[in-house]
Design goal:
Order of helices and strands: EEEHHEH
Strand order of the largest sheet: 3-2-1-4
Distance between the termini: 40 Å
Largest sheet: 4 strands, mixed
Number of helices: 3
Strand content: 25-35%
Number of strands: 4
Helix content: 25-40%
Length: 107
């Protein structure tokens, strides 16, 4: 059985970290890049930069493009309101949208 692949992006106002791992718990790559805040870059540029950083992580892990991600989780600064999260999801395209989402209020 092949391990499933996961990526997570933590996009802040000053930098963005992307980690690529698998379902066996291995971290395959970690890359850091500049901000991905849609308020700083604009929505299309923020989504493009996240895609570029995920691509860098895939390259660092020597993964061919034929191997898809099973899940991509993105946490971006300035995407706090449901309308902002929805705009990011739509900009990312239908393949990046989750089947369901859970929203929690801050304590």
């Amino acid at each position: 059985m092949t391990a499933r692949l996961y990526a997570a992006a933590d996009g802040g106002n000053s930098k963005t970290d992307v980690v690529l791992g698998d379902s066996d718990g291995r971290v395959l790559a970690r890359v850091t890049g500049p901000t991905t805040s849609p308020h700083v870059l604009g929505l299309p540029a923020a989504v493009a930069r996240i895609a570029d950083l995920v691509g860098e992580a895939r390259a660092a892990a020597a993964l061919p493009s034929s191997i898809g991600l099973d899940q991509l989780s993105v946490y971006v600064a300035d995407a706090d309101l449901p309308v902002e999260v929805e705009a990011l999801s739509l900009a990312a395209g239908p393949d990046a949208r989750p089947r369901s989402t859970t929203r929690r209020r801050a304590a």
